[in-house]
Design a protein that fits this description.
Helix content: 25-40%
Largest sheet: 5 strands, antiparallel
Distance between the termini: 48 Å
Radius of gyration: 28 Å
Shape: flat
Strand content: 25-35%
């Protein structure tokens, strides 16, 4: 916890001491009324929440952190905790004749929509320096499986070959050379590794707008020997195409569904008919029916599907089906 930005050792020691003395915290309100709020202050609360420390209490992070008419849920929690602690210190008797915590009900936090995955992960990294509960690229795993041929840590297996990979821009520097030419140096990462890219001249002018920090990209290029630098052979990615990862699904042109003849039943036919109705689009589809002796391919120029995440979720649930996609070269 001490590694979380803005928390510090004193706050961590206070939290541990209180927990050891009184047991696990029941919820965030129990936490607020037990810890010393001068030591575990608002910034500590907000950054612990952003790092996921309050997730076990069962509330979405946005309910603590999202702005609601100039304040957030953390401020409501702190007011509650301060009130109880002041009451305890002064031993005041409440209006109803009691002096216990039960005299003040736990407040209701604002009902807000939970942060999207990207915002949640970015907040994690801001306060911890790393992604804790995932990586922004993970939501695109199906597109990555379909449209990429390597990860960054596999580049050395592709000397003088074309590479297609997905990555997030983590550092972006736009510079001017001594001769007055604009160029850029960028760092991208995936879930396995990082890569430094340099763009000069026409390539820089063509692709520079893609390389903003936090942007998720699909990059196509040649992993070729550097044409500059020292004598030792070093390799770099010579970029041929950059696209937003959100758009890469457009490269998927064909879907093949594989099913065994013995698995075809009326219920399956009805399910497939429903899918073609619900997800109609421009994606060409081949249904490949196989048994022990032959293989039959069925195609229809009229019935096509759209690339939609929910379509593939449903296909994944149909255990009797295997599917493969083909992308443009």
């Amino acid at each position: 916890m001490a590694a979380v930005k803005g928390v510090g050792e004193a706050a961590v020691e206070e939290i541990i001491s209180v927990r050891n003395e009184g047991g696990a915290f029941k919820n965030v309100f129990d936490f607020a009324k037990r810890v010393n709020l001068r030591t575990v202050n608002k910034k500590s609360f907000e950054n612990l929440c952003a790092a996921g420390a309050f997730d076990s209490f069962g509330l979405p992070r946005a309910q603590y952190l999202a702005d609601n008419n100039g304040s957030n849920g953390i401020e409501t929690i702190l007011r509650y905790g301060n009130t109880l602690q002041q009451q305890k210190e002064s031993a005041q008797i409440s209006l109803f004749g009691g002096g216990s915590d039960q005299d003040i009900p736990e407040p209701k936090l604002p009902q807000v929509e939970e942060f999207g995955l990207i915002e949640k992960l970015n907040r994690e990294k801001e306060v911890t320096g790393i992604y804790l509960s995932g990586h922004p690229l993970q939501r695109y795993q199906r597109e990555i499986n379909c449209c990429c041929n390597c990860t960054l840590d596999e580049l050395d297996n592709f000397h003088q070959k074309e590479v297609r990979f997905a990555a997030m821009v983590t550092k972006s520097q736009h510079r001017v050379s001594a001769g007055g030419s604009n160029y850029g140096t960028f760092t991208v990462e995936d879930t396995n590794s990082t890569l430094h890219l340099n763009l000069f001249k026409e390539d820089y002018l063509k692709y520079k707008h893609f390389f903003e920090e936090g942007t998720l990209l699909h990059i196509r290029g040649m992993y070729q020997e550097q044409r500059w630098g020292g004598d030792a052979a070093k390799y770099e990615v010579k970029i041929n195409e950059v696209r937003l990862l959100d758009d890469v699904w457009r490269d998927i042109k064909h879907l093949t569904l594989h099913i065994n003849l013995h698995d075809i039943q009326e219920s399956w036919l009805q399910t497939m008919d429903n899918l073609f109705e619900k997800y109609a689009g421009n994606l060409q589809v081949t249904i490949e029916i196989v048994d022990d002796r032959q293989q039959i391919q069925l195609k229809s120029p009229q019935r096509k599907l759209a690339y939609h995440p929910e379509l593939f979720v449903q296909l994944d649930r149909m255990k009797q089906i295997a599917y493969a996609v083909k992308v443009k070269e």
